[in-house]
Amino acid sequence: MWIKIKDVLFIVLLVGLTGFPAVAQISPGELAKVHSHLEGMSNCTKCHILGQKVSNQKCLECHTELKARIDLQKGYHASSETRGKECVKCHSDHHGLNFQIIRFEKEKFNHDLAGYKLTGAHSKKMCVDCHKPEHITDQKIKKKKFTYLGLNPACLTCHADYHQQTLSTNCADCHNVEKFKPANKFDHSKAKFQLTGKHQQVACIECHKTATKNGQKFQEFTGLKFNNCTPCHTDVHNNKFGQNCSQCHTGESFSAIKGVQNFDHNKTNFKLEGKHQQVECKQCHKTKLTNALKFDRCTDCHTDYHKNQFARQGVSPDCSQCHTVKGFQEFSYPIAQHNEGSFPLRGAHVATPCFACHKKGVNPKDTIWNFREIGKYCIDCHQNIHQGLISEKYYPASSCESCHNENRWSSINFDHKKTNFDLAGAHAKKSCRDCHFKKDNNGVERQQFSGLPVTCVNCHTDVHMKQFEINGITDCLRCHDLTLFKPATKFEHNKTRFPLDGKHKNVACIKCHKTIQDKGTTYVLYKIKDFKCENCHH
Question: How far apart are CA 58 and CA 48, in angstroms?
Fold first, then answer.
């Protein structure tokens, strides 16, 4: 007894001398704030087993919320990273009142181990965006100052139920984690109302209206009436044909009427043929389908685009005399009938479409067709590109027929002998454009007929660089003929200043007439000034 008293006195004395409580000599250190209620030697066994270290079992006896998750093999503490580890490996204590028992690098934490994989927009969130006290339903856990526990992975834990319990609480049935709108996982084909025809193009808001419910914005997706069309569509017939719109209309188009399509129009006095079969009912039946219509003449419905040009004694013939119901572009006006008029069709004119001559409005978009007072002169339809360039005597009244014919425009039958330049030899094979159409220095093609010079160099290049020019004129015909330019068959060397005799007769021209260059031009020198032997012979 004395020993015990002496021991106590020693402890008291020690405390008095050191100023430290005796428990500090036994405890490894002060407990963290969350465990501070366990200070004192009487509480040691709540965490420690006598003679042993901290027990996981003891920890889980207090932390029941973790034990429940581990028993269910859920959450981070049941993952492969923590399974089999001792609690104190990560959560040791006795390091001071302000020591943080729960410490980890949030940026490097693998959230997959917590049983909830962060994908899409969730991966961009901060921890505190989701781990909030208001998101915890367990009241015991909710009392903690801060915890990562107790968060339910259900969507409505963090997100407001916009649909107010009218749809599934599993938002993932319709939405994805990338973006809340649009609900691209929603499949309307699985709904009670199938979207077909034009309904597939209708915006959701047109049927699913937005209203206010319980003081919040609310869009109706359930409870809509669709047993007939009138909940969404106005009955323009005022119930005259009943409420079953589908008897006549289809989902493809409101104007596509099944009843009218099945109606046999041939039983009436006007059979629908050709293009008339494609005309919408309202184009003719502008009021009621049963109202009587006048259809004795085409102009009862169609406008006379010819504006009475074919009228005789004030009355125009019916369109059906020329056109058919297959289309306005098709006509039955034969060539033989056209040839009875003032302009018979011959040659290329036979293959010319009607609009090329008869549709000649000033405005390119003009739709007026002209059938009267045209075709008296070529220039009524054809542009006179020679105006002011060819003398009047060669084509009086600008008549194209003086040179051209109706079979082919490029076939010219002009008698060139009427001019002062008869076409002979190779000239007879040339086209008019070869001589009468030239490009100027700017590359613009210009034509010349009147006043066109007849000298050779006007069309041909003087390759001899004026060596044979006499009084400013080079006459190629002195040496060449009109049939073939080479060789110069009309040239006689013996009439030159150097007649060829003896061996000179067999010498090739190039031996004496050398090719030279002068001012950037290469040509053969024919006009030799000096005929000394030593000039050629060495």
Answer: 7
Could you tell me the two tokens for 497? 């200043």
pTM of the predicted model, to two decimals?
A: 0.42
pLDDT (tens digit, 0 to 9) for every residue of the chain, 538 residues total?
A: 333 333 333 333 333 333 344 444 467 899 999 899 999 888 988 899 887 888 899 999 999 888 988 999 999 999 999 988 999 999 999 999 999 888 888 888 999 999 899 999 999 999 989 998 888 888 888 888 888 888 888 999 899 999 999 999 999 999 999 998 889 899 999 899 999 989 999 999 999 999 999 999 999 999 899 888 888 888 877 886 678 888 777 888 776 667 676 677 877 788 999 999 889 888 898 887 767 789 999 999 998 888 888 887 888 888 888 888 988 877 888 888 888 878 899 988 998 888 888 876 656 566 677 887 787 888 888 888 888 888 888 888 888 888 888 888 888 888 888 888 888 889 988 888 888 888 888 989 888 888 888 888 888 889 999 999 999 899 999 999 998 888 888 899 998 989 999 999 999 988 899 999 988 889 999 988 888 888 888 7
Last residue of a domain, one of 114, 149, 184: 149
The rounded distance, in Å, linking the Cα atoms of 326 and 186 is: 48
Q: How far apart are CA 28 and CA 49, in angstroms?
A: 15
Domain range holding 481? 455-538
Name 104's Cβ contacts closer than 8 Å, sequence gap at least 6: none
DSSP states along 369-399: ---SS--SSGGGTS--TTTTTS-TTTSGGG-
Q: What share of the chain is helix, strand, coil (3-state, %, to 5)?
A: 35, 5, 60
Residue type, position 253, single letter:
S
How many domains, in total, are found in the chain? 2
Rounded to an integer, what is the distance from CA 13 to the centroid of its chain? 95
Cα angle for residues 118, 122, 123 (degrees, 5° grid): 65
Compute the distance between CA of residue 33 and CA of residue 102 in angstroms, rounded to an integer.
Answer: 12
Domain boundary among 149, 182, 208: 149
Q: Specify if 269 maps to a domain.
A: no
The structure tokens 């105006």 sit at 387
d(CA 273, CA 270): 9
For tokens 């581990």, what's the residue? 70
253 lies in some domain = no
Residue 352 domain-assigned? no
d(CA 419, CA 297): 60
Does residue 109 lie in a domain region? yes
What distance in Å separates the CA atoms of residue 261 and residue 255, rounded to the nearest whole number?
Answer: 11
